[in-house]
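subagent[fold] <- orchestrator: predict structure for attached chain, return tokens only, no commentary.
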Amino acid sequence: MSDPAKIATQIMAAVGGIQNVKSLTHCATRLRFTLRDKQQFNQAQLEKMPEVLSTVVAGDESQVVIGANVTKYYAAIQQQYQLHEAGEPNQPTPTQEKNLIKRILNAIVSIMAPIITVLIAGGMFKVVIAILALVGLNPKSTAYLTLSFMADAAFYFLPFMLAVSAAKKFNTNTYLAMMMAGVLLHPNFTALVAAGKPIALFGAPIRLASYGGSVIPIILIVWFMSYVERFAEKVAPNMIKTMLKPLLVALITAPIALIVIGPIGSLLGDGLYTAVTFINQHTPWLVPTLVGAFTPLLVMVGMHVSLLPLATLSMTKFGSETIMGPGMLASNIAQAGAAAAIAVREKQTRGRQIALSASVTALSGITEPALYGVTLKYKHALTCVVVSGGLAGLFAGLTGLVRYSFGSPGDLHP
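subagent[fold] -> orchestrator:
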């Protein structure tokens, strides 16, 4: 077995060393580096390593695709180098992406990727509760209600987790960002919203919006807060900066968050909700078909996570979602089927073992081993995956398949 510490050293050398790493996060399969100089990202050297499936450069991120063992190597890197993920001044790299749409998508991916584990935990927790109910647990019992609020915590307090992730992305204070999430979810504010009576702060009206489980408002608030923090850093005298800087950040950001940015984010969420409702009512087959077909391409550029905010919004509003689950289930099965077929036809023992293992992994929801290790290496295999994934996604859409929880791709029901 490979020594994680040794592999971590090799990976860090290939990305330019610790001095070139601005931040590091990981998702289910990838190490996601933000580098000061992307020219030092040695993709050829990384891809020679047996532990690395592939490399991807997507906007500001330089990604090392590891697979299911990514957390092991991430932990080894952190243990050796103790990389800081937030809190340092924002320093643009020489190759910073200038395209606004790409920058927005890259920001969404960077912010959402680290919290996928929490969404899976909450989703699978709900699946366990549903199974317990099927085998006799009374939905009105204290045990059921207690387990339910435990699972719901992953979604209701999503703004807190997004605040942390967004603070790392925007290089601002993590704890002040969580304070802003607390402003949105404070029991006194939620009680005022539930009462339904108009509220205002010094004459400025505050929109009665519920931010539990929301995505867009807190991301916009933390982004705004990052600029407020830089302003406070400049204007606060050194003698009292320790006290004045956080006060200015909180005093400026919190009211604007409730009066302006939160409502804007809430309205954007309502607009997306309307769009999702329209699609579900008029063309329910469209999104699963497109996602089923093009998920491999999204995975290749590391942008598949960009759909997660829409899926989260749909889950919060409807209790189910059709944005990611049905289409990605179709694509995963297509990848697994292609890898299994190649395993049957492969003559070399090593190639057969890789294809069979990748097939099982794809059925579990992780398709990178099948994509990079199998289907990209065989002529027409990826084309078959795209076509079959699209057809399966079309069937899923026409038959009304939806996902009720963020868990394994198998957690879907018609």
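orchestrator: received. Logging for downstream: The longest strand covers residues 21-26. Strands lie at 21-26, 30-35, 54-58, 61-65, 199-201, 204-206, 402-403, 412-413.
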